[in-house]
Amino acid sequence: xxxxxxxxxxxxxxxxxxxxxxxxxxxxxxxxxxxxxxxxxxxxxxxxxxxxxxxxxxxxxxxxxxxxxxxxxxxxxxxxxxxxxxxxxxxxxxxxxxxxxxxxxxxxxxxxxxxxxxxxxxxxxxxxxxxxxxxxxxxxxxxxxxxxxxxxxxxxxxxxxxxxxxxxxxxxxx
Length: 174
Known about the structure:
globular, 2 domains, 16% helix, single chain, two-stranded antiparallel sheet, 3 helices, 7-stranded mixed beta sheet, Trna Endonuclease, Chain: A, domain 1, alpha+beta
């Protein structure tokens, strides 16, 4: 049976490996105890990443999005906010799959579920689909050319590509 420290080390290592395979530079804090574990150098800027171990239960991936530590006053349980971390990255070992969660889904929550398959009761509202938060898919999204409306001399609208042409970022993906 793995300890929580071992699970955390495995998750963090797997997330680093997945990001590096995508061509993302990954950096780490020089000491432990902070609210984030890694820093990703994304095209949009540096992002603080908190790593988590995820568990699969049937068609659901459970991610605990809180931290727990012992203090003199007892157990201190805290959730994460957008001011502390930019993303939570979670790794599920049986599927060898990593997920990247934005604050809109984790902020203030102690845990959340990602669905791998439709619910047996056919519920569709309020479901977080695992594929929507797949780490590789979220970091490799190529927005493509940006359609922009330009104005012709006659005053009518025309569609133009990115400005300047070829300015949309590309990211190597495995």
